[in-house]
């Protein structure tokens, strides 16, 4: 093990991993907006809770690694928090956690040769922030000494959906830290129950603390090709607005492998800090039922919902009124375009729905009626064979690209705020209850130059209404 080096900075660099296919919490979570961007446990999203938890004294601005499809969602998360990350690193395609952490480590070392990283998935729930902060300090001491540290969560049940860590001997002069005796794959129910009876086993949380140089040293020892290709991808990367794009050919050449398989399991310097922090990875709807808060009948009820003689169920509505009568042990989730009803013990099978939708080419697998864009969002209200009605919300300063359509016309009606409209050579403003018509083939743009949200109704009409009928002539967000 490499001896500890004197740190240039005592601040921990959070590395927030923001991937995900949006399948396990369908229909609320979709590929275009996976669960970390949802408000599930508080007023903030899981991503924002993660960023907030790893901020303030003792922490440097975070490095975020995400796919390019989610870049504007990530940027919006920080805008709402009023914070700025050190970097938003874009993967051309997800390659699992070992390459993404390697890229983040190489970038962090550019600013601090002694960078100490805390790797955090962006989609976990943690109830006890104080206990998390204490565990982070404990892990940082061990990481500064050269150990690769993971957090082992105290099991509350013989769960079969998590990997386990068998705790070894305590580390000398590092109270609260232990050697990792063994990483264990997800066990069956009998084996998991035996682990709980025996003690000394914790759930593998997927959160880590280590020096960037030590991580790369161990990765190079066990998977040298990943380090080489990530170095090339970082060297070939380029800045794009607020983002850093990794070099695509080099990064795609990386082996897709988890950090556990690539480093934590083969290394002889892995350490574990056992924690009791109210943790869940929100791997299924049942996790939110267990997280509560529940009523006297054991139901977790969210949204416009009425229950009668219902027990031990999770009932959530994002829009329509939902009534649940005489049901037990169900998961019921309603959005404006889909409804899920599942037995509680089959919640892990939700992926079968998204697989079916993808096989059928259905949009419900990837997007909801509410679609987020860098300028705000739009929500489909109604549609037919030759028309579509949307509600558009432009955040302050937001503006659509200067564009034209070959097959559809549009009619805009402002309901709140002030719109600046470009239509051909004309530029004019519209207030509430005013409207504008955009003929087929004319260059046009919609802007919100005010400090308040702009809301309007857009009615599209024509023979083809697909989103690919857009020719972008100029775009503030690099999508031209």
Q: Can you identify the CATH class of the largest domain?
A: Alpha Beta
Helix content: 10-25%
CATH superfamily of the largest domain: Spore Coat Polysaccharide Biosynthesis Protein SpsA, Chain A
Number of strands: 30
TL;DR?
This protein has 480 residues and is an alpha/beta fold.
Task: Please name the defining characteristics of this protein.
3 domains, 33% strand, Spore Coat Polysaccharide Biosynthesis Protein SpsA, Chain A, five-stranded mixed β-barrel, disordered N terminus, six-stranded antiparallel beta sheet, alpha/beta, single chain, 11 helices, Jelly Rolls, 480 residues, 30 strands
How do the helices and strands line up, and which of them pair or pack?
Blueprint: E1 12-18, H1 46-53, E2 63-67, H2 71-81, E3 87-91, H3 97-111, E4 116-121, E5 125-126, H4 129-144, E6 148-153, E7 164-170, E8 178-184, H5 189-198, E9 201-211, H6 212-222, H7 224-235, E10 238-240, E11 243-245, H8 248-252, H9 259-264, E12 270-275, E13 279-280, H10 285-291, E14 300-302, E15 305-308, E16 314-317, E17 322-325, E18 330-334, E19 339-343, H11 351-359, E20 370-373, E21 376-383, E22 387-394, E23 402-404, E24 408-416, E25 419-423, E26 426-430, E27 435-438, E28 444-447, E29 454-462, E30 471-474
Parallel strand pairs: 1-2, 1-4, 2-3, 3-11, 6-12, 14-16, 15-17, 16-18
Antiparallel strand pairs: 4-9, 5-13, 6-9, 7-8, 7-9, 8-12, 10-11, 18-19, 20-21, 21-22, 22-29, 23-30, 24-27, 24-29, 25-26, 25-28
Helix pairs in contact: 1-2, 3-6, 3-7, 6-7
């Amino acid at each position: 093990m490499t001896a500890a080096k004197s740190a240039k900075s005592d601040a921990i660099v959070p590395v927030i991993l923001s991937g995900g296919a949006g399948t396990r919490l369908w229909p609320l979570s979709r590929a275009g907006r996976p669960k970390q961007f949802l408000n599930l446990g508080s007023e903030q999203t899981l991503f924002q809770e993660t960023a907030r938890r790893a901020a303030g004294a003792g922490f440097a601005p975070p490095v975020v690694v995400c796919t390019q499809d989610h870049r504007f969602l990530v940027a919006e998360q920080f805008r709402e928090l009023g914070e700025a990350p050190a970097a938003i690193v874009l993967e051309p395609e997800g390659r699992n956690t070992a390459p993404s952490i390697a890229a983040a480590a190489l970038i962090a070392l550019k600013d601090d040769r002694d960078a100490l990283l805390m790797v955090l998935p962006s989609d976990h729930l943690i109830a006890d922030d104080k206990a998390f902060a204490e565990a982070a300090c404990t892990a940082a001491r061990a990481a500064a000494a050269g150990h690769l540290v993971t957090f082992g969560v105290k099991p509350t049940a013989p769960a079969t959906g998590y990997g386990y860590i068998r705790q070894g001997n305590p580390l000398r002069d590092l109270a609260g830290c232990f050697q990792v005796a063994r990483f264990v794959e997800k066990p069956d129910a009998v084996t998991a129950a035996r682990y709980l009876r025996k003690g000394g086993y914790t759930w593998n949380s997927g959160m880590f603390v280590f020096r960037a140089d030590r991580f790369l040293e161990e990765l190079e020892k066990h998977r040298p090709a990943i380090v080489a290709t990530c170095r090339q991808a970082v060297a070939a990367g380029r800045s794009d607005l607020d983002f850093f794009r990794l070099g695509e050919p080099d990064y795609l050449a990386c082996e897709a492998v988890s950090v556990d398989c690539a480093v934590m399991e083969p290394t002889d310097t892995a350490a574990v800090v056992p924690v009791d922090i109210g943790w869940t990875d929100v791997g299924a709807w049942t996790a939110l039922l267990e997280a509560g808060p529940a009523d006297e009948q054991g139901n977790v009820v969210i949204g416009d919902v009425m229950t009668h003689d219902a027990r031990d169920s999770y009932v959530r509505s994002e829009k329509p009124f939902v009534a649940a009568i005489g049901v037990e042990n169900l998961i019921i989730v309603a959005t404006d375009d889909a409804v899920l009803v599942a037995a509680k013990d089959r919640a892990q099978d939700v992926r079968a729905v998204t697989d079916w939708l993808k096989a059928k080419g259905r949009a419900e697998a990837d997007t909801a009626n509410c679609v987020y864009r860098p300028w705000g969002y739009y929500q489909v209200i109604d549609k037919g064979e030759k028309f579509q009605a949307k509600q558009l919300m432009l955040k302050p300063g937001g503006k659509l690209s200067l564009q034209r359509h070959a097959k559809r016309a549009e009619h805009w009606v402002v309901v709140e705020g002030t719109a600046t409209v470009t239509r051909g050579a004309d530029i004019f403003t519209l207030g509430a209850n005013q409207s504008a018509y955009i003929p087929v083939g004319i260059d046009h743009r919609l802007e919100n130059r005010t400090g308040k949200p702009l809301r309007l109704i857009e009615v599209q009409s024509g023979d083809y209404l697909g989103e690919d009928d857009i020719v972008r002539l100029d775009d503030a967000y690099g999508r031209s």
